[in-house]
Design a protein that fits this description.
Blueprint (H helix, E strand, L loop, with lengths): L2 E14 L2 E12 L2 E7 L8 E4 L4 E4 L1 E3 L11 H8 L9 H10 L2 H17 L2 E4 L1 E2 L6 H12 L5 E6 L10 H16 L5 E5 L7 H13 L3 E6 L7 H7 L4 E4 L5 H8 L4 E4 L1 H7 L6 H6 L4 E3 L13 H11 L4 H8 L1 H6 L16 E4 L6 H4 L6 E5 L4
Parallel strand pairs: 1-4, 1-5, 6-7, 8-9, 9-10, 10-11, 11-12, 12-13, 13-14
Antiparallel strand pairs: 1-2, 2-3, 5-15, 15-16
Helix pairs in contact: 3-4, 4-5, 5-6, 11-12
Bound molecules: N-(iminomethyl)-L-glutamic acid (NIG) and fe (iii) ion.
Length: 381
């Protein structure tokens, strides 16, 4: 057992109900798990000491949406987009070709580098999807590799219809909900479907999600990225833990979300990187919808893994306060993953803490783009 005290904290964000922020605090972690939270003057001794030097400490970020198992890149697609070409789901197929051609070790090395970059920016809990294999063996491999680095793995065989099934979509849907699901479910906690005019319809998604639920997986949905597409209603109908993107929503979607346990996960780095209008987080929060913010880091629609930048965009472009944005990026993400004990700092929390080179959490939005994460302490999977 090894203990560490994070002492001399100016501002500690705990998200304890009724007292989300406390001043002059210290935190003790044992083997990465919080064992004590209190006033700095009362802090018990520990094997090691991290001096926050009057800076702010926040919970580790919960990035509840990423696609980190892939090969190649799509910088040329990004460049074309910045010259005026719109984003479409079709680009996914070029990453599928590169990923199928890669060895396990190549994918593992790329994944490890991406996870390390995310942690260096304060992310301690990370969901990772498959979806760039789209054969039984390649999807199973992606999930096996993802499981080496996180328990929050998501089967996304329904990312797009691969080229070899272009003339027989129904056969691909049957493959995904049949033998592909059977091979992937042992390595996955979740199943997800990309609902979009370039990907899957609501009816196809319903079949796939129901099969996933029957196989014991929790449900997540990509919906409303490029249009209000009926995916939000499906997510609520099926009791999905989260519906992600939510860029385009009808009033009925907002009402349905507000009366449900489904979290609306917003991905502002996608709007940034595809030059789309941002989702309206204020509208959702005011309606009583549970909101999360995540990165959606992937080679196509957004290749940033920066939770600090995602929350700064939410503050600057989506009508929320710095504390609301931080809550969405921590406790909101935990809720989207139906997890307790991450995204907050209380006795028993396993999500670790992030020491900032800043006197307040507000500075993450205020000093946007500046690397303020000084140290990440704890965080166990
Ligand atoms: O969440 N929307 C579907 N999947 C990703 C995009 C993947 C890609 O373009 O490669 C997303 O934005
Ligand atoms: Fe995604």
């Amino acid at each position: 057992m090894s203990s560490v005290v994070v002492a001399n904290i100016g501002e500690l964000v705990t998200f304890e109900p009724g007292r989300p922020v406390r001043l002059g605090a210290a935190v003790v972690l044992v083997d990465g798990v919080v064992q004590w939270v209190g006033d700095d003057a009362d802090a018990p001794p520990a094997d090691a000491r991290v001096d926050a030097a009057g800076g702010a400490v926040i919970p580790g970020f919960v990035d509840s949406h990423s696609h980190l198992v892939f090969a190649g890149d799509r910088a040329a697609e990004f460049e074309a987009r910045m010259a005026g070409r719109p984003y479409t789901a079709g680009g996914i197929r070029s990453t599928v070709a590169a990923t199928r051609a890669a060895t396990d070790d190549e994918l593992r090395a790329r994944l490890a580098a991406l996870v390390a970059q995310a942690r260096a920016q304060g992310t301690t809990t990370l969901e990772i999807k498959s979806g760039y294999g789209l054969t039984i063996a390649d999807e199973e491999r992606a999930l096996r590799l993802a499981r080496e680095v996180t328990d929050e793995t998501t089967f996304l065989g329904a990312h797009v219809v691969p080229a070899e099934y272009a003339d027989d979509r129904a056969a691909y849907v049957d493959l995904v909900r049949g033998p592909m699901l059977a091979a992937c479910a042992p390595h996955a906690r979740w199943i997800d479907v990309f609902i979009d005019s370039g990907a899957f319809t609501v009816d196809e998604a319903r079949l796939i999600l129901q099969a996933g639920r029957d196989a014991g997986l929790g449900l997540r949905v990509h919906a409303g990225q490029l249009a209000a597409d009926g995916g939000v209603a499906l997510a609520v109908e099926l009791g999905a833990a989260s519906v992600d993107h939510c860029t385009h929503l009808t009033d009925a979607d907002v009402e349905a979300l507000a009366g449900s346990d489904t979290v609306a996960t917003l991905l502002p780095l996608v709007e940034f990187s595809t030059r789309q209008p941002y989702p309206d987080a204020r509208r959702l929060l005011d309606a009583g919808v549970a909101v999360a913010i995540a990165t959606d880091c992937n080679p196509g629609s957004n290749f940033s893994s920066s939770m600090p930048l995602a929350l700064a965009l939410a503050v600057r472009e989506m009508g929320v306060t710095p504390l609301e944005a931080l809550a969405a990026a921590t406790v909101g993400g935990a809720r989207a993953l139906r997890r307790s004990g991450v995204g907050e700092v209380r006795v028993g929390s396993s999500g670790g803490v992030v020491v900032l080179d800043a006197p307040s959490y507000t500075w993450m939005a205020y000093r946007v783009g500046v690397p303020l994460v000084r140290e990440v302490v704890g965080g166990v999977r």
